[in-house]
Automatic annotation (TrEMBL):
Keyword Transmembrane found: yes
Keywords of this entry: Membrane, Transmembrane, Transmembrane helix
Highest taxon listed in the record's lineage: Bacteria
Name the UniProt record assigns to this protein: DUF4083 domain-containing protein
Membrane-spanning segments: 6-30
């Protein structure tokens, strides 16, 4: 009989864990994309500098 009382609470905890995992995953993906964009911006700036040097030289 005790299982019938624990099962709804256990189900709620599982749903809460899944929800927390999804939130963590979204935040992690957004941070990774921001870091990737910063690196790509730095690469782009360096390529612009090299292109300007070739035009002048």
């Amino acid at each position: 009989m005790d299982l019938f009382y624990i099962l709804p609470m256990l189900t709620f905890v599982v749903y809460l864990a899944v929800f927390a995992f999804i939130i963590w995953l979204v935040i992690w993906i957004i941070q990774s994309q921001k870091e990737r964009n910063v690196l790509l911006k730095e690469i782009s700036n360096k390529l612009d500098v090299l292109a300007n040097i070739k035009k002048e030289g």
